[in-house]
Amino acid sequence: MSGIIAQNSGRHTGLVKAASAGGEWTLIQTLTSDGSDASLSFTSGIDSTYDEYCFKFINIHAETDDATFKFNGSDDTSSHSYDITKTTSFFDAYHNEGGSLQALGYRVAEDIAQGTGVTTVMRNLGNDADAGSSGYLYLFAPSSTTFVKHFISAGSIASSGTYHVQNYMAGYFNTTAAITAIQFSMSSGEIQGGSISLFGIG
């Protein structure tokens, strides 16, 4: 409180401009689907340079209707085996174009409890020609060798069956090893369109 008073000495409005606290976004890499990608993998650029990373996915298009867009992490800098143990939670809301069906709920089938499998980021993607789905995934302090590695994501999905689905996922890689690579894939079929950009934030 004394700092605020000192900064406002002689002022009448009582307003203070906040000091800059960083938060600059730096684009590290963008991967764009060529229409036939089994997966898109970021195998460099994830290190101790930043404590916060963000993956932004724009108009991801699925080959298979009702596919699930997933991710996994690796702590192996050579072979990149994507099998880190993790625990996650997942919930979503949906609404159909006709306005007659809507719901909000936790999705037990999409969570992981100390498993090594791929994690759902966006579910029920449609494969209509105009069906693109977008969202983001944040990864925190991946190079820490003290703490588990937290992540959160949100997505806006043009779903199969003319639905919009809004989903949220969060969890952590249960390891104190540094996460060095992240891979995105579909539950079935290929990633047939869209791009994923990796940003460092600091």
Description:
- The protein is mainly β and 202 residues long.
- 3% of the residues lie in helices and 50% in strands.
- The strands form two sheets. Strands 1-12-3-8-9-10-5-6 form an eight-stranded antiparallel sheet, with no helix packed on it.
- The longest helix is centred in the N-terminal third of the chain and has 6 residues.
- It starts with a helix and ends with a strand.
Structurally, the number of domains stands at 1
Structural class: mainly beta
Number of H- or I-type helical stretches? 1
Fraction of residues in β-strands: over 45%
Order of helices and strands: HEEEEEEEEEEEE
Quantity of strands, as a count: 12
Helix content: under 10%
What is the level-2 CATH architecture name?
Sandwich
Question: How are strands sequenced across the largest beta sheet?
Answer: 1-12-3-8-9-10-5-6
CATH structural class: Mainly Beta
**Unreliable spans:** 1-20
Radius of gyration: 20 Å
**General form:** globular
Biggest sheet details = 8 strands, antiparallel
CATH topology: Jelly Rolls
The mean pLDDT is: 89
Distance between the termini: 27 Å
